[in-house]
Records
---
Amino acid sequence: MASTEIMTVNMGPQHPSTHGVLRLVVELDGEIIQKITPHIGYLHRGVEKLSEHRTYHQTIPLTDRLDYLAPMHNNLGYVLAVEKLLGIEVPERAQTIRVILAELTRLKSHLVWVACHALDIGAMTVFIYAFREREMVMSLYEKISGARMTSSYFRVGGLSSDVYDGFEKDVREIVDTFPGHFDTYEGLLTKNTIWLNRTVGNGVISAEDAIDYGITGPALRGSGVDWDLRRDNPYSGYEKYQFKVPVGEKCDTFDRYKVRLVEMREAVNIIRQALDSLKPGPVLADAPQVTYPPKENVYNTIEGLIHHFKIASEGFPVPEGEVYQGVENPKGELGYYIVSDGGNKPYRMRIRPPSFVNLGAIEKMAKGSMIADLVAVIGTLDIVLGEIDR
Amino acid sequence: MAETNRAVIKLREKFSASVLDVKEFRGEVTVTVKREDIVEICNFLKSSLAYNLCTDVTAVDYLGKQEPRFMVVYNLYSIPNKDRLRVKAGVPEAGCSIDTVSCVWSAANWLEREVYDLMGVVFNNHPDLRRILMTDDWVGHPLRKDYPLQGPGREPYKGRLS
């Protein structure tokens, strides 16, 4: 019998499907994967360390750089955790706008996922279409916050400002046109023979293994586990909205693809319901120790000016204690664990990154399959290296 | 409410000697246990109380604030019961180690490697305890409180951040 030799191949960090700085050292027997050793790159923004040296408000711009595809979700998890520590209640209008923007962000993130996943496997058209649609959400971001990517729009206690006139019209235009676009993607991919051959039965991970590896989000639901934080641990008033939580059956790449596409349709549903329930009202909590005073007070009264200055430079004290807040990010459960010692800075802030934990299961998912299928497995996890390496 | 929590009652029943403290803050229950029994307790929480998802493993450095210096924190979630629980175990600076729970949840494998890398807590019997975010030859553990923000061997910047 011919003897076989194991070959070691470096995949990444420049490989187009490793999305940035991921390097996989793959040991191959022919084309079959025997072992994968991930080296998850050295981005090192040091967000956790930096946040120990900044006030609670100053940390917000650090959080949306974690996962640059879903900045508002990262803001949301952080401000919810700080609000929980403080024990303050956010007004209803702010909560509804937060939900609308969070779901738009989910669309934005999933659009990049479907684009890049399809491109990794070799479908170019979907990439161009999805980025075209994402542009609509991006310009909405720009109108709201002035930034196309890193919005930093949410504040502890509510929003940095109310939305502009015509916001509802713009959002309605998005929710009215997007379902048609989803049909286009499905038309291009769902029954495409090449797509099916590359995704069905690829990257299988059973429900039990997926939970064991701590996988969350669409990747877990693709394995048939019916679990969604928005429904099971509701925050920001998600309990008021009706939506389906899609789950897969075969636990493979195709199921995770289907789950994310249904999730996009459900996001449109949630945005519609939230728009219908949007009423006028304040967008900042009645907590003057924590929130910035209204601009007219800052400009016209000395007390307002001093107060604004104090909050901006010194921050605000937060009661001693520790909380954990998880939110359902497009990638999975993003959690903030904050320990406060009573000061104006987090004593310790830990970010529970979904991509990091999901990537931990890559060997389990890809072992024994062909190296060409590894590309599809990386794509189906929808990783963002900025979040993995924080 | 912490005293009526199902997990707390069961843990007190079964591990009365190892439960050091039970606290509730903003509706979240935290149980502090002895580090020697962490694997046994986690096994019990997973198999008998259905805390099947190990959401997070992390550590807090209480340098000069309290003894023991490190607190290893396990954020657990039960998918069937939709219930969260936080378990903590203190680890002293001398003999800075605790047993691994990666035999209970595979998710703990990478999370513990990160704690080891950034905090310097050693996990006994861990299958693959290597640095994960920093390079292999990196000196020091960046998330420790005595590790300077600007990095080692640099004159601290005297401006806003330092």
---
Amino acid sequence: MPTTTINGQQVEVNDEGFLVDPSVWNEELGAELARLIGITMTDAHWAPIRFLREDYAVMGETPTLRRVQTQTAIPVRDLFGLFPGKPAKKMAYVAGLPKPKGCV
Amino acid sequence: MNEQQPRLLVLGAGTAGTMVANHVRRRLPHWQVTVVAPTDVHDYQPGYLFIPFGMNSPEQIRRSAAAQLHDGVTVVTGEVDLVDADGQAVQLVDGTRLDYDRLVIATGTTPRPDQTPGMEGPHWHREVGEFYTREGAIALRDQLATFEGGRLVMHTCELPIKCPVAPLEFTFLADDWLRQHGLRDRTELVFVTPLDGAFTKPVAARELGHALEERGIVVETDFMVESVDGERRVLTSYDEREVPFDLLVTVPVNMGADFVGRSGLGDELNYVTVDKHTLQFAPRPGAAPHPEIFAVGDAANLPTSKAGSVAHFSVEVLVGNLVDLDRGRPMSHSFDGHANCFVESGHGKALLLDFNYETEPLTGTFPLAGVGPLQLLKESRLNHLSKLAFRHVYWNALLPGRPLGLPSAMSMAGKHPE
């Protein structure tokens, strides 16, 4: 696994740049990961990211967009506005979590 | 539990439910087996795909559900209202209460056009079609009969769906059908997917992506539909892309049965949360365990394809475990996520995919006793003939529980790892 330095912190990432170990994540690192994909974090961005972190800690897997919408009442449309193009993947990336379980 | 005659209650009489009941009846003859189904209809669902193209008649794929169940299996016609897991009983809508010692949920997955704004408008089953129900497939056959060219769009709303290769198959068959009817050069064929490629697994996505490209099919990826406008004939995504159509063939959002959600046994899409190896109910954190509840086939949240082959292989594992439990042993059978899918590619050919939780579909050959090696991820006539022959196998061997010579665990024999 490649190692990279983000925000002065050495972290392991996979081929797609996702953090390998979710436990090394903190909000400073999250903000820097967001910056790397062109996103400036605001309170509106942090709400779903904090939900992702909390939900992952309990459920052991990255929530789907549908789960984020039902659990936080943030409409999917807004998630597309905050994390354009591929919100599920981008939110997981910023939250330092694995890509949501590939649909099979 | 009643030690002499344990009561097994099976919800659903599709592929998985019918197989569970028949296998248990045969292997545990001292059990009382009851199946609950809403109607007496059992459709051979892979046949829906062929109806729009006149390759199957609607009559050929429908039989009585009760007639597929072995003697000694009790059939209750009714709709499930709730599973009272604490009380070990199932409540039907008509008020009937059925007690169980073990419960197997096999109520599958259902297309839910109501989940996408605009889908069920006046154009539903007309310019906005689908082929996941028998009536939808018949309506689509009638639409194609008067189709004169334009934009034919094959669209998938959200994963998971039943038979994730079917949208590709429909596209390939439509390409072939349009050529045969002299309409292909007047038709733009478009494949719209929420995924970033033609399929979920990389090697298969590459091979199937080539097949789409060769046929001049336009692919629109990462498209998460927000609404359908039947009047303007456009699909709109959450990121405000529009895909116009003359004839839309959509795969609505798929969901498990509502009673699963109401009973607190499911995930956001009402799929029963199970241990992916034993098929035993696995409560979400904080919820109560109910080790007497199991789910198989499409009704379970297994991280593999929702497909008849998965129903088949997972039932064999489940029944093995029910036998273990009956004998007072720990469950010794483990499901590996094995799926085995023929993909119709048109021109009388098909591809074959074989994979499990760990191994994605690979190229190579698949050994099949009595038929010979089948080509994996490559078009062949023999794959197509095998797919056509399967309807006979389904009614006469699979549902009654006769051995097919297909092991439930995936094998690497003949495969080419990349």
---
Amino acid sequence: MLSRIAESLFWIGRYVERAEDTARILDVQTQLILEDPGVDEETTCRSLLSIMGVEVDPEDTATAIDTAEVLRVLAYDTSSSASIAATLAAARESARRARETLSTSMWEAMNTTYRAIPSGHFRSMRPPVAFRWVRDRAAQINGIGEATMTRDEGYQFLVLGRSIERADMTSRLVATAALTSGSAWGTSLRACGAYEAFLRTYKGLETERGAAEFLLLDRLFPRSVVFGLTQAERALESLESAGTRVGVQNEAQRLLGRTRAELEYRSLSDFVAELPSEMERLQRTCALATDAITRRYFAGAEATEWHGVRA
Amino acid sequence: MFEDYASGMGAAYDEMYDASDLRTPYRQLQPSLQEMGPAELQTRVEALQSSYLDQGVTFDIGGEERAFPLDVLPRVIEMDQWAKVEAGVQQRVATLEKFLADVYDAGEVLNDGVIPRRVITTSSHFHRAAAGIEPPNGVRVHVSGIDLIRDDDGEFRVLEDNVRVPSGVSYVMTNRRAIAAALPEVFAEHRIRPVAGYPQKLLTALRAAAPAGVTDPNVVVLTPGVFNGAYFEHALLARTMGVELVEGRDLECRRGRVMMRTTQGLEPVHVIYRRVDDEFLDPVHFRSTSLLGCSGLLNAARAGNVTIANAVGNGVADDKLVYTYLPDLVRYYLGEEPVLNNVDTWRLGDADHREEVMDRLDELVLKPVDGSGGKGIVIGPHATRAELDELREKVLADPRSWIAQPVIQLSTVPTYVNGVMRPRHVDLRPFAVNDGHRVWVLPGGLTRVALGEGELIVNSSRGGGSKDTWVLAGKSRPVIRVEPERTLPHATPQDVGPALESFSSQQDQQQQQVETIEEQPC
């Protein structure tokens, strides 16, 4: 398939997942700030922005960093690239570029989702309703994709993007849970839709360590970091259908595989002790893997320019 | 909703009403709409609009994406009227093919003096770079859109030929689906020739044009990209043909062959249905700064390794000055009389024509010969004195670049405007596909509507709308009814979960009831 289209599909996977996970993270954090009087709003908001990769100028005291500001930057403001609104628009733009390869129903699902942004519908929803809406729309898009897409290269690129993004974003969710103590873990699990699964798996014993373990390492839960990394590895494997007898030739596969093995084989206590920095390391790996994938599969999409001279 | 319609009708031929009598093609349509009532129709109109936005059936104006405007009332054309249009378009395309083959080869038409040599050599679309490129199956005009209008007498006339990259066919297909969904009961009362077969016809023609020796050609659609006004169409054609939609940057020419960049490396390309203008196609030969094409395409085509459809240099055939010679060309190449007439035209490059026209600028339409999309057209009666003065100067400075035509009142068709039907001017662009054996004309084509009252320019880039165009299939054939089977097959699913059990037993009961009804003697 065309390199450019493969790249678009990869990013559709990433953007849709990013919009959904950002909504999940915001849902947890805004609830926490509201419900827990022990939480300092400003500190939490600043940390949240930094975990989501948004630079905040520490000198700038004019702008209050509060929930409203966080919602502006991470949910509604289309000029902020980290916002859900901008992410959904980017997903739709990628879909428009790969329009001929998407099923009509998948395109329509993405297009109608996007239309809520310029029409002001998304902005007008109350935050909890908006977050739920984003989750539902993402589920619809993913579901239609699962139901209508041939399992060809294009599908593998979509899954690859989605899986890498999910590993990355779950690690951010874990990092935000570590911001505050106490009820944060339970809320994080709920945000992932993992609470019931977690309770069943851990027989009702709710501990911070157990929650971290579940979100990072559970091999069966689809939003855990390990699950995401494994999915990404599988997608890469089927893209490299030729197969190699010795070692792993694909740089992205190597990066993801090594990180997954580290997660699985290092003691959990080590991780939990340095959760924020470990999670940052994980996010760096995801970024490096994306670079490697871009070089390996999409590099051809770069335009070669003709420097002609008019005779 | 049609109450005051007749009073709004102007001098133009109205396709639905002859004075206040309904014309034949609309005898079924009008009462059905009347019966539906204004409130219901309004609901359907709104559903129509939002469905186009959801589907992303849009085009771009200056970077802004808009839903393509589609009027709810279809335009109906009867079988015998259509037969003439079809024959006329086929004749026209056959002539243009012969003409192009001739001017890029021996130029006998010029030697025989049918058309002056300077008309060709001064055309900005005559590309010497295209001379000597032999299309594999002899086809240069794989796709054409011949613009037609109906004059005061209702006669179809050719307004212009588009044999470069005519666009709009995607809207023919989407309009049909949208109208069938919006007016299913009205649709069912007519027998309408289908349009959905277009992509397959196009693909067949493109494959037939593959370079010699290539049995399973790789066909691609080349688009300038998402910012192009017609991107929707490019994506739709690629999707419905099941081929790649490529941009210039996806292509690379190596040793006279065209390759595309894929995740598995470079893959060969054999046929390019390009939706990029000549000037941007190959920076080696045309604009050296173009990023929309790919350098080396033309050499690859010359080497016979790739087919470019439509062929480079076709623009000379739809130059508006060449258009004026088309009836002569039909006689010259085919030995036939034209089935469809041109609109009367003066060539301002000819001194005597110019003399006839210059004093009457205020009553004529003036068109630049190489313009498209309605650009640069001046409609005399609608222009101010200053505009006419400016026009006169332009014409005198470069008379070769202009033609003049009488103001023709394009025919009108009722169009939904704020809850009532009003007459609006329309034209028609039928699309034809040439696979080398036969010129196939899509039944219907794109009807464009000038949405403003009295407006004569219908281009979508100038705020025009569109209509679904129904070509009737004639008298209905006897429908063969298949006798229903005596017993219904059991549709009960084999495996059902516990939650479904009660439901499926209900279904069983209902089915049994149906069976007993069926078994009763009629």
